[in-house]
From TrEMBL:
<feature type="domain" description="Roc">
    <location>
        <begin position="314"/>
        <end position="646"/>
    </location>
</feature>
<dbReference type="InterPro" id="IPR041249">
    <property type="entry name" value="HEPN_DZIP3"/>
</dbReference>
<feature type="region of interest" description="Disordered">
    <location>
        <begin position="396"/>
        <end position="429"/>
    </location>
</feature>
<dbReference type="InterPro" id="IPR027417">
    <property type="entry name" value="P-loop_NTPase"/>
</dbReference>
<feature type="compositionally biased region" description="Basic and acidic residues">
    <location>
        <begin position="396"/>
        <end position="410"/>
    </location>
</feature>
<dbReference type="InterPro" id="IPR039788">
    <property type="entry name" value="NOL4/NOL4L"/>
</dbReference>
<keyword id="KW-0067">ATP-binding</keyword>
<keyword id="KW-0418">Kinase</keyword>
<dbReference type="GO" id="GO:0016301">
    <property type="term" value="F:kinase activity"/>
</dbReference>
<keyword id="KW-0547">Nucleotide-binding</keyword>
<dbReference type="InterPro" id="IPR020859">
    <property type="entry name" value="ROC"/>
</dbReference>
<dbReference type="Pfam" id="PF18738">
    <property type="entry name" value="HEPN_DZIP3"/>
</dbReference>
<dbReference type="InterPro" id="IPR032171">
    <property type="entry name" value="COR-A"/>
</dbReference>
<dbReference type="GO" id="GO:0005524">
    <property type="term" value="F:ATP binding"/>
</dbReference>
<dbReference type="Pfam" id="PF08477">
    <property type="entry name" value="Roc"/>
</dbReference>
<dbReference type="InterPro" id="IPR011042">
    <property type="entry name" value="6-blade_b-propeller_TolB-like"/>
</dbReference>
<protein>
    <recommendedName>
        <fullName>non-specific serine/threonine protein kinase</fullName>
        <ecNumber>2.7.11.1</ecNumber>
    </recommendedName>
</protein>
Length: 1255
């Protein structure tokens, strides 16, 4: 478990009273959920089976509604509607438009997914997120509010919970992340908090667990802090959104359910069997309450901690206003900016902006009065100097307090008198302007009076260092005194203003996307003299596979609004703000001007209605650019009002960063475009107020990059150079895009330019011609770095060529720029004719949820693909077009990627061979990861879902796309988009891209004609895995199905059958090691995961009643197969014929048994796993596990043989002893025989003597 440092303590909970709710007579309340709206509280009562409405101030019961079953969770879905999930796996939608009249609207049945519903939360206007349990496993799913259709179901903990009578889960969602708290009394390993990405829910983003944890409820506040009720410790655990524990709040009462009221900034907690709700006020700590930039908050925890530590050393509030002026070509954007900046304008001259023009530090706002003033040259520079002196004062005060017993050489403050006399005590790394346009290199030595030496003074000793400090500060004071007339004498604070003028031509849109940000106010300029449905004839657009087309005025308005919306922070809807500015009002007749203006703006609002982008539009203002329009002041005032409402207004940054910021500004102002990292580090080391180490320096530079001040990438190959002026890179790109203006003077490269414009092929000869030493020396000297940056940003890519064996043989000596492609894609590329020898995958579709895909996103994806795979060719020409590109994945497979509207389509084809599912999966993984990375790098809030196109659809049709989540939840889906309706098997669409998701019908068939395991060893291991791993899982599930009930755990069932199991031990059906698995000697609970096929089959045959003949026969068959193929195998090999026979027989048996487990979701999961074993090579880890098992058995057998051998030797020794005894006995017997003979002879002699005597 990760724990945050004490400095990260984000918020304390201050008890702010209690609210006692009125109860119905004779009822003991058990509040299982709570929501708040306006002035009422709605609670669900577990004991009373009802929904209650209480007045917030005094808790008076206003009304209640009896529910048909026990309520488990509740959420607000609108101002007057709630969703309540009931224990019996239904969700009821209730309306309370009148507080004394609650009505049932509808009931949604989710019994196919859950045995018990636990919790519900609102995902969006149409969908709910629900958590619960099914067959002793926690799940969560997405449910359609309209009809209860389940879109996707996901296992939470990855395993069973043993018993599900005494368990609970609670769900919350924030910014696309689903948070679930789970608890069960039987399996403490499950207890914890799980976080899943709603769009990639296969593995948790984090899991939070602690000992003796009983999480009963979870919520997330507006700052993405997570609060989890722990009933065991009477506390609330506070986590970061990455799962780190910040702190634990101990409460006065046991918390059961929790609710965050964002309107009032308080928490409500309920307690079990009490009608009292406790109210807690959130009191954020100073560090968190001080505004930390969102760009820092999203960094790793180490960066965030360094930023906080730097703030502790001193900080200053930042007030910056960035105004982005966007819109169609020729509507008057540049003129509007000139008017706002108070510049003289010749209205008869028309100048078109290329790329982006940035006007920095030309104007400012006084914070108290909100007045827009024109800023004189260098005023901002010397304002920074004043702020630096202020920092020195604060630092001097701190040091003087710590040095009271001894005199310091740096005692005292920098006072206004000292400023006049020029006697300060601290230095800052500030220099006079540098006179160079080239990249600054740091020489080993500098003349004393050189500009670099003034920025980076040499320090050879401690004493000399102190002198240099004084000299440097003297320079600051001298600069301040020289320009004292330019400095503000009052303490009034100002907000710096920067204005960005975006070119309107469509060809520059790819460049624009890099610089769009939520940290701006946008002026969307429109020409009111145009009709909103007019075609824009002087600007060609090329958005997708259609190629060049003319857009209408409202099309470009929507494109700009959607592009701006794509920058919206997920937690701040409506940010950034957009003001619609109408120009050319002078062209509208005065007698109908106001009516036309009003109708125009209304029409735009109608076009944007019901679209997320409409949230950003906050005002509409008209300006007559032909004169100094009085409404300019209205626009300025509105900009300032909106700026103060932006989340980053007044955020704090470390004061010790200010000196280096000033030094960078000095370099930039002197014309330095690119600086080596070593120079920036040396400048930093020269001052007493400096960044402490390389890690903090890297953070500082990354922060400046995020702010848009510089371009810095902390990766090898790029980190050693820093672009100080981002517009310089924009200028470099636009010089290539508009290179046609140069070719008249350089006819030798006309063909290269035409090729670039038509096919996006950017030749080095064209680059060298445009960035020549004479025309663009800055670009020429930094050519390699600029091209690396453009590749990093996926604006261009270097193609590669492969030989016939698929090996890379060379890197092409040119770049591809997808943003330049304008030719429409041939229809035969998008919709190839089916051929007998060609196999094609289903078409995987990336559908952007808000129905907008910025063209630059697709351009960057194509560039990334170009860098990853070779572009396919036909007749020596590249198969790359506007909105489409074809790639060679290998010698036989081809990939086609194309876009239309808001969808990216992906298809893999092969000629004369069988399509590789593994290759399709790799393509999906690469494109998914690349898209996510591009969106993240551009700081876009775009989200996409995976769909698959109906096979009967043609090309780039978006009329019949099926959500992958729906396909995974249904065996078949109907399609009504092609005349006659038809049904499609989900497996036919999923099998190419999601091998693990195929349905049971296909899985139980023979499978693909060419199994992936091709070696004898791979085939044997595949069958072994099927029996040992998959077979054991299915039998374990079947055992639980027959033995475990809500009233009886598996341990209890085994204990109840102890006599039978002991008899199995006596009869040697079981051996002692198996008994130790069933009844661990430690006294712990049995772990069913340790049960193998042999043990399971023994239990089924002897202590599990109720097996039907089919189950019984199949279990016996599995054990026999296991003994033959695994237990008694003579080798680890299997030929293809044996494999096919075994796989068909065993997979059919396992699929049938999975159907008897009583859990459709488990059945589908096992079917997917069975199919995977057929088409996949079993991981090496499984080989090792099997060999370890065999080796262990061999060692055991060897030990047993040694024992037997010893016993035989003992027996042999005994036999030798017996033999000796027998020999002795035999000798004795021989002696006895002789004696007997002698006696007999003597007797005979005596008898003869007697006869003789008688005679």
């Amino acid at each position: 478990m990760a724990t945050a440092t004490p400095q990260e303590s984000a918020c304390s909970l201050v008890e702010d009273g209690t609210l006692t709710l009125q109860t119905e007579a004779g009822c003991v309340p058990y509040y299982n959920g709570i929501v708040v709206t306006e002035d009422i509280l709605l609670v669900i009562d577990y004991n009373a089976w009802n929904l209650q409405i209480h007045r917030r101030p005094d808790g008076k019961l206003m009304s209640s509604h009896r529910l048909e079953f026990i309520p488990n969770g509740v959420c607000l879905i609108s101002k007057t509607d709630v969703a309540v999930c009931l224990w019996n796996s239904t969700i009821v939608i209730l309306s309370f438009k009148s507080i004394d009249n609650i009505k049932l609207v509808k009931t949604l049945n989710v019994k196919s997914v859950f045995d018990d519903c636990h919790s519900v939360a609102k995902l969006n206007q149409d969908k709910l997120i629900v958590s619960g349990v099914k067959n002793a496993v926690f799940y969560w799913c997405v449910v359609n509010l309209t009809d209860g259709h389940v879109h996707s179901t996901h296992n939470v903990c990855g395993g069973g919970i043993g018993i599900y009578l005494n368990c609970s889960s609670h769900i919350a969602i924030k910014n696309g992340t689903v948070y679930i708290s789970c608890w069960t009394s039987d399996s403490t390993v499950v207890n914890g908090v799980y976080a899943y990405d709603i769009y990639n829910p296969h593995t948790p983003k984090f899991v939070y667990r602690v000992d003796a944890f009983r999480p009963t409820s979870i919520m997330v506040d507006e700052r993405n802090l997570i609060y989890v009720c722990d009933l065991n410790s009477k506390s609330i655990h506070q986590l970061t959104d990455s799962g780190h524990l910040v702190t634990t709040h101990t409460l006065s009462s046991f918390p059961y359910r929790i609710l965050y009221d964002d309107k009032h900034g308080v928490l409500y907690t309920t307690s079990k069997d009490r009608n009292v709700i406790t109210v807690y006020r959130l009191q954020y700590s100073h560090q968190i309450d001080s505004v930390i930039p969102a760009e820092v908050l999203k960094m790793d925890s180490r960066s965030l901690q360094m930023y906080k530590e730097a703030l502790n050393e001193g900080k200053e509030k930042v007030y910056n206003i960035r105004v982005m002026v966007v819109g169609q070509y020729g509507v008057g954007k540049t003129t509007l900016i000139q008017r706002l900046l108070g510049k003289h304008i010749n209205i008869s001259e028309r100048h078109s902006t290329d790329g982006i023009d940035v006007h920095v530090e030309c104007s400012k706002f006084s914070l108290p009065a909100g007045e827009w003033t024109i800023q004189e040259k260098d005023a901002e520079k010397y304002s920074r100097l004043q702020r630096l002196v202020k920092i020195l004062n604060e630092r001097a005060q701190k040091e003087s307090k710590s040095e009271q017993e001894g005199k310091s050489e740096l005692d005292g403050q920098v006072t206004s008198e000292e400023l006049d006399n020029g006697h300060p005590h601290y230095d800052l790394p500030v220099s006079a302007e540098l006179n160079t346009n080239q990249e600054v290199e740091l020489p080993t030595s500098q003349p004393v009076d050189s500009p670099i030496a003034r920025v980076v003074p040499e320090v050879s000793s401690e004493r000399e260092a102190k002198e240099n400090k004084k000299d440097t500060v003297m320079e600051i004071i001298q600069l301040v005194n020289e320009h004292s007339g330019n400095l503000e004498k009052s303490t009034v604070e100002y907000a710096a203003l920067a204005m960005w003028d975006f070119a309107g031509q469509y060809v520059f849109y790819t460049t624009h996307q890099t610089f769009l940000t939520s940290r701006a106010i946008y002026l969307l300029v429109i020409d009111l003299s145009q009709q909103i449905k007019d075609l824009i004839k002087d600007d060609e657009c090329f958005l997708d596979t259609e190629g060049i087309k003319l857009c209408k005025v409202h099309d470009l308005i929507e494109i700009w609004m959607n592009s701006i919306h794509s920058c919206t922070p997920s937690s701040q809807p409506g940010i950034p703000y957009v003001i619609l500015v109408g120009t050319h009002v002078d062209k509208i007749p005065e007698n109908c001007r106001q009516r036309v203006i009003d109708e125009y703006f209304v029409h735009i609002c109608e076009i944007l209605s019901n679209k997320p982008a409409a949230l950003h539009l906050v005002d509409c203002i008209t300006i007559d650019n032909t004169q100094v329009d009085p409404r300019l002041e209205q626009l300025k005032k509105r900009i300032f009002e909106l700026a103060k409402q932006q989340p980053h207004w007044g955020e704090e940054k470390p004061a010790r960063w200010l000196p280096l910021e000033q030094a960078i500004m000095t370099l930039k102002a002197s014309g330095v475009k690119v600086a080596p990292l070593s120079l920036i580090e040396e400048i930093n080391r020269s001052g007493s107020v400096r960044i402490e180490n390389k890690d903090e320096m890297d953070l500082f530079l990354r922060f400046q990059h995020e702010m848009g001040t510089i371009l810095y990438f902390s990766i090898e190959g790029l980190r050693k150079k820093i672009v100080l002026d981002p517009q310089w890179l924009i200028d470099a790109q636009k010089s290539l895009i508009t290179a046609g203006t140069f070719i008249n003077k350089t006819p030798a490269i006309v063909s290269k330019w035409c090729e670039f414009k038509k096919s996006g092929k950017l030749a080095h000869e064209l680059i060298d011609a445009v960035w020549s030493k004479e025309k663009n020396p800055e670009f020429h000297d930094n050519k390699d770095h600029i091209l690396l940056l453009m590749e990093k940003l996926n604006i261009i890519a270097t193609p590669r060529t492969y030989d016939q064996e698929g090996k890379e043989v060379k890197v092409e000596n040119y770049f591809l720029a997808p943003c330049m492609l304008s030719d429409a894609t041939p229809r035969e590329i998008i919709s190839p004719k089916p051929l007998p020898e060609m196999e094609s995958s289903s078409v995987l579709c990336y559908v952007f949820i808000e129905q907008f895909l910025p063209a630059p996103i697709f351009h960057r994806l194509v560039a990334a693909c170009v860098a990853h795979w070779p572009v396919a060719k036909k007749n020596s020409g590249n198969l790359i077009y506007c909105g489409c590109c074809v790639f060679d994945l290998d010698l036989h497979h081809r990939l086609t990627v194309f876009s239309r509207n808001h969808v990216i389509f992906v298809r893999v084809t092969i000629m004369g061979k069988t399509l590789s599912f593994q290759l399709c999966a790799e393509v999906k993984e690469f494109i998914t990861m690349t898209l996510s990375k591009i969106i993240g790098n551009l700081e876009q809030s775009l989200q996409f879902e995976l769909h698959i196109q109906c096979p009967k659809s043609v090309g780039d049709s978006v009329s019949s796309l099926f959500c992958v989540a729906d396909l995974q939840s249904n065996e078949a889906v109907p399609c009504h988009s092609h005349g006659d309706s038809h049904v499609i098997l989900s497996s036919d669409l999923l099998r190419f891209w999601f091998q693990e998701q195929e349905s049971s019908n296909v899985a139980s068939s023979a499978g693909p004609s060419q199994p992936h395991p091709t070696s004898d060893t791979d085939r044997f291991m595949s069958i072994t895995y099927l029996l040992v791993d998959v077979g054991s899982r299915i039998l374990r599930k079947l055992l639980c199905h027959h033995t475990v009930t809500p009233a009886c755990t598996l341990d209890q069932y085994l204990a109840n059958n102890m006599n039978k199991i002991n008899s199995l031990l006596k009869r040697k059906v079981l051996h002692q090691s198996q008994m130790d698995i069933l009844f661990p000697p430690s006294g712990a609970n049995t772990n069913i995961e340790d049960y193998d096929v042999t043990l399971l089959s023994a239990l089924f045959n002897n202590i599990v009643p109720g097996l039907n003949p089919t189950e019984d026969n199949m279990i016996k068959s599995l054990r026999e197969d296991r003994n033959i193929l695994y237990g008694h195998a003579k080798s680890c090999k299997m030929n293809a014929s044996e494999y096919q026979t075994c796989w068909s027989s065993i997979s059919s048996t396992l699929i049938t048994l999975s159907q008897h487990c009583g859990d459709p979701s488990f059945q589908n999961k096992m079917v997917q796993e069975i199919q995977r074993t057929y088409v996949s090579v079993i991981p090496t880890g499984f080989y090792l596990d099997i060999h370890k098992t065999w080796f262990s058995k061999i060692e055991t057998a060897e030990g047993s043989l040694e024992t037997v051998k010893g016993s035989l030797e003992t027996v042999q020794g005994s036999l030798e002893t017996v033999q000796g005894s027998l020999e002795t006995v035999q000798g004795s017997l021989e002696t006895a025989g002789d004696t007997i003979k002698a006696l007999k002879a003597r007797v005979e002699a005596l008898e003869l003597k007697k006869v003789d005597d008688e005679n």
